[in-house]
Amino acid sequence: RARPCGGAMSDGRGGGDGAPPLRTYPALPVWVVEDHHEVLPFIYRAIGSKHLPVSNISFVHLDSHPDLLIPVNMPADTVFDKESLFSEISIENWIMPAVYAGHFSQVIWLHPPWAQQIEDGTHHFLVGKDTSTTTIRLTSTQGYFVSDGLYVPADQLENPKPLHLSVHLVNPTKPSDSREGSRAPSSAKRLKLNDDTMDAAVASSSKGMEVPPPGSSDTQPEALETSMQAQETADGFQGTSASCSFGNHTCQTTELIKGILQVLPKDAAYVLDIDLDFFSVKNPFKEIYTQEEYKLLQELYSFEKPNSSASEEDLIDCVENRIHQLEDLEAAFADLCDDDSDEILEKWALNPGMTPLIPLVRSLKSRVGTPNYEMVHQAGLTCDYSEIPHHVSTEEEIEGLVESIEHLLRNLPVPTLVTVARSSLDDYCPAEQVELIQEKVLNRLRSIYGMLDVHLEYLEDFSPTGTDSSSTA
Predict the structure, then answer these.
(1) Which helix (H) or strand (E) covers residue 160, if one does?
(2) Is 6 in contact with 26 (CB distance < 8 Å)?
(3) In 10 A of CB 236, how many CB atoms?
(4) How wide is the angle at C-alpha 127 spanned by C-alphas 97 and 382, nearest 5°?
(5) CB-based burial, 375-401: b 16+ in 10 Å, e otherwise
(6) What is the tens place of the pLDDT at every residue in 134-145?
(7) Percentage of residues of the chain with pLDDT beyond 70
């Protein structure tokens, strides 16, 4: 479904390992899908068409969820058969297989204030094939990975690939922080850029450009100065400056830009990836289960993170215990799918930590008759040391995050392509807000980058080959 790429245009950059220069799209492509893992085929297509290099791709990921888990039982070698890989991945685990395949070497996760699954900062670790299970595993000791049983020691990995993971908080711009005169009247109520603004936006597909397009509605001298200062000081950036007062949004944003530019070279080939639930997010399970049922799920699936000084032996024990816990819970709910009689229920409840199973199942049966136990288990898997994010934003908060992202992107290099996930059918991005958020995001991308080649893939039955719904605007 790819549009013609406009010939063998080149941006002059090599694709690595002596490869010829990468090709350049005539207009920045934006692929909009529903479920987040559906963007991966379009990234692979860009690799195949030599618009992205085969390796050392940087991935800038705006999302309320890291999406950095791994298909637990998938053989590692599946990544070398892309069609098999695409059939195995899901919304929470589609990025790491591309790391193990050697394509992504750097992931920059930008998260809103209500998403705290991984500690802010820089994390270096290995992703490779576990020699004992032949599945993909990694060496990070972050609770996010350990709670899913993904940690193994480095000497247990075959074909390890280094990953540089940078995690940064993005705060929304408050109305008082908005640059004076950048949009008049207030853009909070205005979803479409007017035609004059669109005509003024100049397409900029040359890589490494770090300033707003000439003629863009938001070109400001201070923005250009910030960009140059950020680039000049990026090499010495060591983290958020202690001298920045809390709540000083301009200072925080400048530090964020400096931090990203330190790890994202100006000539980097990178993918800009945006999940619309970055701007407003639900925990859909909170609407499926009662407050008491959700509390019982949290007790059943509870997990205590290892402390930072845990030894390798302690970490291995922690992972083994967690794997056994999750396997037992999966087996229990599989049993209950076949027979949820009191006899079976009470038998499973005798296992350590499974006492909450009895009141949970009885509550579900009294409320819905025949519970979907597979979904109950999936809900439980999201309950470990923290809840998955739930923050339905006001329109003012959405606009504040859009403002912050626009300021950030104007000071970063131009991406090779943009991928967007709506995440609304599974109710992570509120269905009543997704269209508003999508329109705001696409309009700001046009304001920053000029001409876009937008592919509304979610309007079609997903298939990597076929006709797409696209527009150049």
Answers:
(1) strand 157-169
(2) yes
(3) 8
(4) 65
(5) ebbebbbbbbeeebbebebeeebbbbb
(6) 999 999 999 999
(7) 77
Q: Does 122 have pLDDT greater than 90?
A: yes
Of the candidates 390, 402, 392, the one whose C-alpha atom is nearest the C-alpha of residue 189 is 402
Sequence-distant (≥ 6) Cβ neighbours of residue 113 within 8 angstroms:
169, 171, 172
Q: Phi, psi (5° rounding) for residue 224? A: -65, -40
Q: How far apart are CA 423 and CA 429, in angstroms?
A: 5
Segments in 59-107 forming alpha helices (H)? 82-88, 96-100
The one-letter amino acid code at 80 reads F
Residues in the chain: 473
Give the phi and the psi of residue 204 in degrees, each rounded to 5: -140, 95
**DSSP structure string for 220-269:** -HHHHHHHHHHHHHGGG--SS-TTSPTT-HHHHHHHHHHHHHHHS-TT--
Q: What share of the chain is helix, strand, coil (3-state, %, to 5)?
A: 40, 15, 45
Q: How far is CA 365 from CA 35, 355, 361, 371, in A?
A: 30, 17, 6, 6
User: How far is CA 311 from each of CA 67, 137, 193, 306, 322, rounded to the nearest angstrom?
Assistant: 27, 18, 55, 9, 16
Cis bond upstream, residue 172 (ω within 30): no
Q: Is 434 helix (H, G, I), strand (E, B) or coil?
A: helix
The residues near 366 (Cβ < 8 Å, ≥ 6 apart) are none
Residue 402, SS3? helix
Looking at residue 205, its pLDDT comes to: 32
Look at residue 363 and give its three-state secondary structure. helix
Q: Measured in Å, how far apart are the chain's first and last C-alpha atoms?
A: 18
The helix-helix angle for 357-368 and 291-300 (nearest 10°) equals: 150
Give the number of C-alpha atoms closer than 13 A to the C-alpha of residue 55, restricted to the C-beta side: 10
In this predicted model, which residue has the larger pLDDT, 465 or 165? 165
301 token code pair = 């699936």
The number of CA neighbours under 13 Å toward the Cβ of 62 is: 27
**Phi-psi map region of 466: left, alpha, beta (phi>0 left; psi -120 to 50 alpha):** left
When pLDDT is cut at 50, 70 and 90, the band that residue 20 belongs to is confident
Tell me the three state secondary structure of residue 114. Answer: coil
The tokens describing 350, both together, are 């005798």
pLDDT at site 176: 60
10: CB partners within 8 A, 6+ apart: 20, 21, 22, 23, 24
In DSSP notation, 414-431 reads: PPSEEEEE--TTTTSS-T
Collect all residues with Cβ–Cβ distance below 8 Å to 66 and sequence separation of at least 6.
109, 111, 117, 118, 144
The candidate with the shortest Cα–Cα distance to 166, out of 260, 265, 57, is 260
Strand partners, 419: 31, 273
